[in-house]
Write a structure and sequence with these properties.
The chain has 194 residues and is α/β, with parallel strands linked by helices. It is 41% helix and 20% strand. The protein has helices at 10-25, 41-53, 76-85, 104-116, 145-158, 170-183; strands spanning 2-7, 30-37, 59-64, 93-97, 121-125, 140-143, 190-193. α2 links the parallel β2 and β3. The radius of gyration is 15 Å and the shape is globular.
Length: 194
């Protein structure tokens, strides 16, 4: 698996439950986890969170890059070069932001994921935010309620720099999981969507 996120916490918010579920079922999975923009405390948070989310992976390679947040389109050449190095991963699946995401950093990474991995399974996760750009996903991963609680617990635990943001709370994360669970008739009522 190749997991790509623009910022520390994006992968966890977008597909953390799916990863926890997949790795519990397939503990030998090899995962490459790349956060493109995290500096200082955010970089430390990204590494600590990835280690815990990937605890059941067979092997994992966590890369935290320091491209300037909110300026990814202006650093496009460097980001493209970083993407090119990921070809050596040869993933079976790529988890990344959605191409329709209105956040410029997210959108650029999604475009480069599709550009770089043309013959791979690419699943686009969603991030709730101000832009209101949630779409109509076509792939759903039903999640156990315990996995959803664990995902939220790990988000709270590892991202102290985000706790004062009014949108960074368990209610929001569970609400999106619940909506997607309703859409796919998940037995638990919860799901992540791609």
């Amino acid at each position: 698996l190749l997991c790509v996120g623009a910022h520390a916490d994006d992968i966890e918010i977008g597909c953390g439950g799916t990863l926890l579920t997949l790795l519990a079922r397939h503990p030998g999975t090899r995962v490459t986890w790349v956060v493109f923009g995290a500096r200082g405390a955010r970089a430390d948070e990204a590494r600590a969170s990835a280690a815990e989310f990937l605890a059941q992976a067979g092997t994992h390679d966590v890369r935290v890059l320091d491209f300037e947040e909110s300026f990814f389109p202006h650093h496009g050449a460097g980001i493209k070069r970083a993407f090119e190095t990921l070809k050596d991963v040869r993933p079976d699946a790529v988890l990344c932001h959605t191409r329709h995401d209105l956040h410029q950093d997210h959108r650029l990474l999604a475009e480069l994921a599709w550009n770089t991995f043309r013959d791979h399974l690419v699943l686009e996760y969603e991030i709730p935010k101000y832009d209101g750009d949630l779409g109509q996903p076509g792939v759903f991963v039903p999640l156990d309620a315990a996995v959803c609680r664990r995902k939220c617990e790990l988000l709270r635990k590892h991202f102290a720099t985000q706790r004062d943001r009014h949108w960074f709370d368990e209610e929001l994360f569970l609400a999106l999981l619940r909506v997607r669970g309703m859409e796919c008739r998940s037995p638990s009522g919860y799901a992540e969507a791609f």
